[in-house]
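We were asked to recover a plausible sequence for a given structure. The inputs and outputs are reproduced exactly as logged, with field labels preserved.

PROBLEM: sequence recovery
POSITIONS: 142
GIVEN STRUCTURE:
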């Protein structure tokens, strides 16, 4: 399966977060980030296992512009990623990071979980171990 990578601006991503009517998990990552690459399979597996709950997982790549789209798509395909993948078309971390969370300083991986129906937003400023991820996904939907 070939993986397509869509380009997105931060304002578009924020709009998606604000209007999504299903629980949403947004994981910010890059192909060169070891902890990012280690946790993505946990996200995909655990969201897939909860597919009856209709959680949407979006992987937002912060790879460099010269990797878009071929490098990111090739990496995703090689690693078997099945989730929607976006490439964040932004360069100024001082501008876009605080729009997700004021505490985000640009380090990755980070994750934002959103459930608009229950007014739930939670930011994770580091890799989430798989056992904790399972608990956090449960909180997102309960």
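RECOVERED SEQUENCE:
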């Amino acid at each position: 399966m070939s993986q397509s990578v869509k380009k997105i601006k931060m304002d578009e991503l924020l709009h998606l977060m604000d209007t999504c009517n299903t629980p949403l998990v947004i994981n910010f990552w890059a192909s060169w980030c070891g902890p990012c690459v280690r946790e993505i399979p946990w996200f995909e597996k655990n969201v897939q296992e909860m597919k009856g709950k209709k959680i949407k997982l979006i992987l937002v790549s912060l790879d460099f512009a010269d990797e878009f789209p071929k490098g990111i798509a090739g990496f995703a395909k090689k690693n078997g990623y099945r989730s929607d993948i976006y490439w964040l078309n932004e360069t100024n971390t001082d501008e876009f990071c605080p729009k997700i969370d004021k505490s985000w300083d640009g380090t990755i991986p980070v994750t934002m979980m959103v459930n608009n129906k229950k007014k739930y937003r939670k930011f994770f400023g580091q890799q989430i171990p798989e056992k904790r991820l399972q608990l956090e996904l449960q909180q997102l939907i309960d």
